[in-house]
Amino acid sequence: MNDGDFFGDRPRLECLRVGAFELTRGDRVVLRPKGRADILDIALDGKVAVIDAIEQDLEGGVYLAVVVDDDPGKDFGELKQPGHRFFFRPDEVEPLGADARGE
After folding, report:
1. How many domains does the chain contain in total?
2. Range 35-38 contact pairs with CB under 8 angstroms and sequence separation of 24 or more
3. Residue 63: pLDDT over 60
4. Is residue 8 included in any domain, yes or no?
5. What is the pTM of this model?
């Protein structure tokens, strides 16, 4: 696997269209997890995050790798460390708009 990345050697996508928005690395989004599969879904709901990468799994599913703005360990997320970098489907984020770049 590449850099501890779950998605291995799959190519990263440069951009992704979500509704009327085109998202790229560095864009800010609001997290809206739909699955409510675990406590993190509840804890991260409504949080603002920065897109670190747009990934594609082996089945062709697309995910946004994000780092949460108010995570005290976000520097670990930026280094692609587990527990501080989260993956969401495109339908689980709300773009903040073109002027809300996180860079």
Report:
1. 1
2. none
3. yes
4. no
5. 0.77
